[in-house]
Design goal:
Rossmann fold; six-stranded parallel β-sheet; binds pantoate; single chain
Length: 277
């Protein structure tokens, strides 16, 4: 497995890989890799592609009160996992490469970025869109892979790629879960042991709620029930919403492409999840 830490190395290694493979696939990550990321790497190896995984903890997508400093970092562990899954190249840029001094350009996506995580984490999607646009320009992949746990992120990046006519395809990969349903996330390690059994109730509540919504009844009272259930389970609920999958616009009742999305805090950890309706 190759490693690039400078743009010069990245260009050289990508050129080599392009000569040997039919296409190039990018898996953008912030490290602290888990089986959810490995599912992205495995999906990316389809189409005889060379797989490039980027590891960069992107300060621009963290708010001033968020957990940038405590975001887990384990480059050696990440590299071992990536190698075992057949990743071909790891791209580990430093801060000055991603945000050179005097840098004055960011990307602001509206539409799917406006609500939910966009409200709860002002500036978050500007950070995500900006770093993804930079990574796409550096690696020039044919496809990039994102986990559907961050459903809104997938839609924001897809919108950006369509609007800027960027020459790549965005692929969402289904969420990988623990046996009890908890969606894998780098932040799960911060869930208190005593609260871990409750954490799985987020997915269980979403599944039960999605089944009720799928009958076609008005969404509001069903969503109120879901919020009340989660609050009883010990969550501080940010939102539980029925939305149109691609645009994230709220829906009054289920219809094709509807998605049930939620964010709730359990102790010091903010969990997000979503299911198809
Ligand atoms: O999902 C993530 O890990 C990050 O938001 C991403 C896509 C790597 C951009 O920093």
């Amino acid at each position: 497995m190759l490693i690039a830490r400078t743009l010069e190395d990245l260009r050289r290694h990508c050129a080599t890989l392009r000569g040997r493979f039919d296409s190039l696939a990018l898996v953008p990550t912030m490290g602290a890799l888990h089986d959810g990321h490995m599912a992205l790497v495995r999906a990316a190896t389809a189409h005889e592609a060379a797989v490039v995984t980027s590891i960069f903890v992107n300060p621009l997508q963290f708010g001033p009160t968020e957990d940038l400093a405590r975001y887990p970092r384990d480059e050696a562990g990440d590299r071992a996992q990536l190698e075992s899954q057949g990743c071909h190249l790891v791209w580990v840029p430093d801060l000055a490469t991603m945000y050179p001094p005097g840098d004055a350009t960011t990307i602001n996506v509206e539409g799917p970025a406006l609500r939910w995580e966009g409200d709860a984490r002002p500036g978050h999607f500007r950070g995500v869109a900006t770093v993804c646009a930079k990574l796409f320009g550096q690696v020039r992949p044919d496809r990039a892979y994102f986990g559907e746990k961050d459903w809104q992120q997938v839609q924001v990046v897809t919108r950006m790629v369509a609007d800027l006519r960027l020459p790549l395809e965005i692929i969402g990969v289904p969420t990988v879960r623990e046996a009890d349903g908890l969606a894998l996330s780098s932040r799960n390690r911060f869930i208190a042991v005593s609260e871990r059994p409750q954490a799985a109730r987020l997915f269980a509540t979403l599944e039960a709620t999605a089944r009720r919504l799928a009958q076609g009844a008005a969404a509001d009272p069903i969503l109120d029930d879901a919020r009340a259930t989660l609050t009883r389970e010990g969550f501080a609920v940010d939102y539980v919403a029925l939305v149109d999958g691609p645009t994230l616009a709220p829906l009054a009742a289920a219809r094709p492409l509807a998605r049930l999305i939620a964010a709730a805090r359990l102790g010091s950890v903010r969990l997000i999840d979503n299911v198809m309706v």
